[in-house]
Amino acid sequence: MSASLDEEINRVAVEIQLLEATLNTIKSRLSVTEATLNESQMALETLKALESAKEGDSILVPIGAGSYIFAKIENINKVIIAVGANVCVEENIKKSIDMINERIAKLEQIKASLQQQFIQTSQKLEENRGNLERLIRAREAGGSARKS
Questions:
Q1: Which residues of the chain have pLDDT under 50?
Q2: 5, 8, 100, 116: which is deepest, by most CB within 10 A?
Q3: CB of 89 within 8 A of CB of 81?
Q4: Which ranges of the chain would DSSP assign to H, the alpha helix?
């Protein structure tokens, strides 16, 4: 009985390690998603501000890390927007705003999904930690407290 209890302890311990690695991966993906979401929201704010600007106006343009530069608007009709895979296209402001809004909606869905996965994985991890503690106590007590 002790050998099978040891095997069960080892199995649960390995599962805990896998769950911890999964949580780290989810955290990492959440962090990247949140950073991309923040960047997209900043781009959206900038584009919306550009809608009311005129050619020749001076504006502050966010460059990241809470930093801005002064710039003069030369053309309010067109902006360059990334569409993926390091490809950018020239679009009008309205279309660019729509594209950014779609991107933000998708990122929010991804973020919600990752948060749900994080919660489920955390719960499973805590359940397995409880099982491991119970199995270790059972082994120390001579295997009498083994749960099926």
A1: 145-148
A2: 100
A3: yes
A4: 2-51, 93-140
Which CATH number fits the domain 2-140, given the four candidates 3.40.50.1980, 2.30.110.10, 1.10.287.370, 3.40.50.880? 1.10.287.370
Whether 135 and 2 have beta carbons less than 8 Å apart is answered as no
Quickly list DSSP for 105-120: HHHHHHHHHHHHHHHH
| Cα angle 32, 35, 37; round to 5 | 110
pTM above 0.85, yes or no: no
Task: Burial-class residue 51 by CB neighbours within 10 Å (0-12, 13-18, 19+).
Answer: exposed
Predicted pLDDT at 143? 53
Task: Give 39: exposed, middle or buried? Use CB within 10 Å, 0-12, 13-18, 19+.
Answer: middle
| DSSP 3-state of 56 | coil
Closest CA to 16 of 135, 124, 145, 134: 124
3-state secondary structure of 55: coil
Contacts of 145 (CB under 8 A, 6+ apart): 134, 137, 138
Beta strands 87-91 and 79-84 are antiparallel
